[in-house]
Amino acid sequence: MRRISLWAGMALAVAVLTGCPPTYPKCNNDDNCKEKGEVCVQGQCQECAEDANCREGFTCQANKCAPKPPECTTDTACGAGRICEAGKCAEAQCKDDSACNGGKCQAGRCQAPKDTCTAATDCGEGQDCQGGRCVTADASSRCDFAPVRFGFNESTLDSSAQSRLGDLAACIKASQGKITLGGHADDRGTEEYNLQLSNRRAAAVKRYLTDLGVPSNRLTTVGYGENRPVSNGATEEAWAENRRVEFQR
Question: What is the CATH number of domain 141-248?
Fold first, then answer.
C-alpha cells in the first residue's frame, strides 16, 4: 500500500508540474484550439483573433469570420470624381463630353450618342446594338442565355456582366415567355450563407434587367446555394464556374 501511495503521489506531482491541457473551449495557447481550426483568445478558443486568421474575402468581427462588405453600392459612397464599379470605388470615366468620343458624360460615365452604341442599353426600346449602330431588334434572333459569372463572395455585377445583360435585355424584350433566374454559389462557406448569396446574385440580375425595361412579371428568382455545381473540382477555375446565375426558360 505504501508503494502504491508513493507512485500515486509522484504521478500527482508530475501532473501538477507539467499541467493538464484545459478542456475545450478553454485554452492556454493556440495549440489547445488547433484541432478545431481555431485560435486562443483570452483563454477561450475562438474562430479568429484578427483578419489574418480568416480566409480571403472574410474579416474577423467579434472573433467570427464574416464576409467583407462591398466597398460601395452607389456612386455617392465614393465621393466626388469617383464612381462605383462592381462594388469598388474607381475613377470616373469622364468629367465632360470631350472624353466620350462624341457621346455624353453623365454621372461620370460616357453615354454613346443616339446613332451609335456599344451595347443594347445605348439604344431605344425594341432596338439592338449591331456593328456599333442601333437597329431594330430581330424578335426571332437567338438570345445569349449563357450564365452570368460572379467574383468570390460577390453579388454585384462587374462591367462585363452588365454589358452582357444589356444585350440580353433587348433580346428578352423582343421575345416572349417567362424566365427563371437561378442563383448558385461555390462550396466555400456555410450552406446557409451560400444559399443567401445565391439568392442575392439572382436578385441582382433581375434588378439590372428590370432597370433596363424587362417586365418584372416575366422574371422569377430562385437560389440553389452550393447544391447544383457544374464543376466538382476544388480549384479556382472550378469555383469560378459554380459562382453563377443561370437562365431557365
Answer: 3.30.1330.60
Cβ atoms of 184 and 191 within 8 Å: the answer is no
Q: Are 141 and 120 in contact (CB under 8 A)?
A: no
76-94 per-residue burial string, b: 16 or more CB within 10 A, e: under 16: eebeeebbbbbbeeeebbb
- pLDDT tens column, 42-83: 999 999 999 999 988 889 999 999 888 888 888 888 988 899
User: CA-CA distance, 242 to 185, in Å (whole number)?
Assistant: 6
CA–CA separation, 139 and 123 (whole Å): 15
pLDDT value at residue 71: 81
Domain residue spans in the chain? 30-67, 75-137, 141-248
233: cell is 473540382
| Buried-exposed string 106-119: b where 16+ CB fall within 10 A, e elsewhere | eebebbbeeebbeb
Q: What are phi and psi of 155, to 5 degrees?
A: -125, 10
pTM score, whole prediction = 0.46
Chain centroid to Cα 185, Å, comes to 9
